Each structure stands twice: as structure tokens, then as C-alpha cells.
Amino acid sequence: MVDHTHQDIDAATGTPTTGHEWDGIKELNTPLPRWWLWLFYACIVWAFGYWVLYPAIPLPGGHTKGMLNWASRDAVQKDVDNLKAIRAPFVGKIEQASLQQISADPKLAEFARAYGRSAFGNNCAACHGSGGQGNAGYPNLAGDRWLWGGSLDQIAATITHGVRAGDAEGHDPTASAGMPAWSQMGLNTQQIDQVADYVESLIKPTNADVSAGQKIFTENCVACHGEDAKGNLDLGAPNLMSKSKWLYGSDRATVVQTIANGRAGQMPAWGAKLDQATIKSLTIYVHSLGGGQ
């Protein structure tokens, strides 16, 4: 039993103990510093004040509003409204000007690029990359890889109507475009391999006989890719003579997969989600990345 009639002093440290002992281990009596206690009490008082002044306590029907009636959403909205007010003069000019007029006006073009870069980061970077560099299946917007054209008007049309996006108004010129799955269109495995041999020979010269694949290509593929295999912007058919423009890759397995199963990638129609000033600014920005025609 512990004797509580006198203060026990720890022999090792010279510090009084609380009199509590467990398995020979004594609890030293070392109170918290006064400054720490006062700071702790002040935090408690501040917390009660916060609960009263600001929204803090969740309730079944919402939460307490606080005496100041402040909300973080309102503060953010105020900042957004202030930013819109600053941008308004330039945004108004962009809405009224054509893409060519915006591009020809240095100050307006500079603003459009900055505005478009912000919109690109919020809406487009997830697929095309933060710098428009693209990825397998997603076009490189900075490398002259244009399936539907790289002029200002063509870029604007692609952004507005998307690619195979099912435009409800029927304005999407890409709706019926797509690479067919030739394994379901009459070509067998051998024929698909022969076409793959020929297509690969366009960028990798070979001494092998690819005439069989060339014959199949002429009979089935030139309608979209052209007799010179340089593609067709009206149909979104890529230029097969340039390896850098192969959207899904040029390795053997990918080429065979593309011919056999087809390709029908999609891009959202941003015309229903973004205003005209934003679409025009996006167009100017994308065109400026280095691949604009």
C-alpha cells in the first residue's frame, strides 16, 4: 500500500510523486506549465466564440448559420464575381469578334490565350494533357495531328460539336464517321495481317511482298484514307504516311487491333456546356499550341 501521509520524493529525479504506483513505477507530479494552461483555456473560449459567430454545428435540417451569417461558398462566389467583372470588357469583345479578328488583335489574342488556357485546364487537360501533348487515343494538339482540321474555324467546330458525341441538334458532322471493324466486315485473319503488312510498309520500307495487302487496302480503305493514304480531314481519316499522326500507335499489335476491331473515339460537344467567349478563347489557345494550321 502507498502511504499518503507524507509527500513521496522520487529518488532518481528528486521530483515529488502523486503517490500512485503501478508495478514499482511511480507517477511523477509534474503539472503542465502555466502558459500552456492559459493558452488551452483561451482556445476553449475562442472555440465557443467561433461556434456562435460562424456556421459550425451540423443539425438534422442543415447547420447553425452563425451570428455573422458568413459562408465560404458566398466568399468564393464573391471572388468569382469580382474576377468576372475584371474580365468583362475583354470577354464582351471576344463575344462580338470573329476568330480571325481576335487573332489579329495582339491584346485580345493575349487575353484569349490566357482565358483559354484556364478553360483548357478545367475541361480538356484530363484527356489531352496539361500542355495538349495528348496520349494514345487522345490527339496531340501541339504536334500537327489534326484528324478534323487545324484551322481556327475547324478547331472551333470540333470543340463546339465534338466528335461522335451524338449532338442532339444534328450538327455533328462526325456522327457517322469511324473506323469500321473489318473483322466484322468480311476480312479474315489472314487478310487483316496482309493489310497490316502493307500499312506498316508505308512508314517502314520493306523488301517483302505486300501486294496482297495493297490490293485489299485499295478495295476497302482508299474511300477514307485516300489512294495516297494521306487521309481525309472531312472524314477524320488519319494520314497513314506519317507515323507521328497515328493516334493509337504504329506497333504491329496495335495496327492489327485497329484494323480488326475498328476505332470510334469520342470527344464531348462543348457547345452546350461552354459559352461562346470560352469556346473562342479555347480555339485561340489550342491553335497557338504549335499545331494550328
Automatic annotation (TrEMBL):
Similarity comment: family membership: Belongs to the CcoP / FixP family.
Binding site for heme c 2: M179, C221, C224, H225
Cell compartment(s), UniProt: Cell inner membrane
Described purpose of this protein according to its UniProt entry: C-type cytochrome. Part of the cbb3-type cytochrome c oxidase complex. FixP subunit is required for transferring electrons from donor cytochrome c via its heme groups to FixO subunit. From there, electrons are shuttled to the catalytic binuclear center of FixN subunit where oxygen reduction takes place. The complex also functions as a proton pump.
BP terms from Gene Ontology: oxidative phosphorylation; proton transmembrane transport
Pathway the protein acts in: Energy metabolism; oxidative phosphorylation
Molecular function in Gene Ontology: electron transfer activity; heme binding; iron ion binding; oxidoreductase activity
Superkingdom assignment: Bacteria
Cofactor(s) required for function per UniProt: heme c
Alphabetical UniProt keywords: Cell inner membrane, Cell membrane, Electron transport, Heme, Hydrogen ion transport, Ion transport, Iron, Membrane, Metal-binding, Oxidoreductase, Repeat, Respiratory chain, Transmembrane, Transmembrane helix, Transport
Assembly notes: Component of the cbb3-type cytochrome c oxidase at least composed of FixN, FixO, FixQ and FixP.
Organism for this UniProt entry: Rhodoblastus sphagnicola
Name the record gives this protein: Cbb3-type cytochrome c oxidase subunit
InterPro entries: CcoP_N, CcoP_N_sf, Cyt_c-like_dom, Cyt_c-like_dom_sf, Cyt_C_IC, Cyt_c_oxidase_cbb3_su3, Cytochrome_c_Oxidase_Subunit
One term under GO cellular component: plasma membrane
Cofactor, free-text remark: Binds 2 heme C groups per subunit.
Regions that span the bilayer: none
Binding site for heme c 1: C124, C127, H128, M267
UniProt keyword Transmembrane helix, yes or no: yes
